[in-house]
Amino acid sequence: EAGVAQSPRYKIIEKRQSVAFWCNPISGHATLYWYQQILGQGPKLLIQFQNNGVVDDSQLPKDRFSAERLKGVDSTLKIQPAKLEDSAVYLCASSLDRANTGELFFGEGSRLTVL
Amino acid sequence: QQQVKQSPQSLIVQKGGISIINCAYENTAFDYFPWYQQFPGKGPALLIAIRPDVSEKKEGRFTISFNKSAKQFSLHIMDSQPGDSATYFCAAERETSGSRLTFGEGTQLTVNP
User: Fold this and answer.
1) What is the structure's pLDDT at B3?
2) Are residues A42 and B41, on separate chains, in Cβ contact within 8 Å?
3) Is residue B73 within 8 Å of B65, Cβ to Cβ?
4) Do A104 and B46 touch (CB under 8 A)?
5) Are A42 and B93 a contacting pair at CB < 8 A?
6) pLDDT in tens, chain A (115 residues)
């Protein structure tokens, strides 16, 4: 079974530029998450989708971050404009259904460096 | 508000030794406590998890001890191996409400051969 796919793996941009990350969850997984992992810290949830609806985006900096999950499958996370403090690894995760299992399956992440 | 505090930040043990990582939580509504293991360049992967109806769970060399009254839980790795060298994250959530998983800051474990 294929895991969570993310791209690009690495991205370097200048501050104030924009960037987009893509995630393809495990087939059949209804719930999708985007986490931000700053170096030396634990992952922090940015947004949680259940199918194509947003469940929790309370920690998403909505003035610069946006995310969508069209058709309840793939998802994109966009940052515009980027700031230096956005340098981090952006992890996508999926799970079958939050009500049925606690296990999250993570992708390898997209490492963003903002110069 | 940091809801899950993890210690130590880093840990070095010898091969065959016992690695112990501790976590403390604040929210008494949490009802699911997983540990995730992360290797460099990879995403975290579930290692073992416990729910508060039991005080201990063992899977192979990995054991979670849970103390509900103290709001603490810990990961014990018996007979630690160099291949266990990774970053370990404790986490907690209120699973029944589908709330988000809150991670600790992580412990970088190094097992020397």
Assistant:
1) 87
2) no
3) yes
4) yes
5) no
6) 689 999 999 999 999 999 999 999 999 998 999 999 999 999 999 999 988 899 889 999 999 999 999 888 999 999 999 999 999 999 999 998 765 556 899 999 999 999 9
Distance set, CA B70 to CA A13, A92, B27 (Å): 45, 33, 12
Beta strands, E only, chain B: 4-7, 10-14, 19-25, 33-38, 45-50, 56-59, 62-67, 72-77, 86-92, 102-103, 107-112
Check residue A72 and give its pLDDT: 83
B44: chain A residues, CB-CB within 8 Å: 43, 91, 104, 106
**Closest residue to B43, CB basis, from A41, A91, A103:** A91
Q: What is the pLDDT of residues B36-66, one digit of tens each?
A: 999 999 999 999 999 988 999 999 999 999 9
CA nearest to A32 within chain B:
B100
Task: Tally A–B CB contacts below 8 A.
Answer: 53
Q: From the CB of residue A101, how many other CB atoms can be counted at a distance below 10 Å?
A: 14
Euclidean distance between CA atoms A38 and A44, whole angstroms? 9
Of A55, A104, A108, the CB nearest to B42: A108
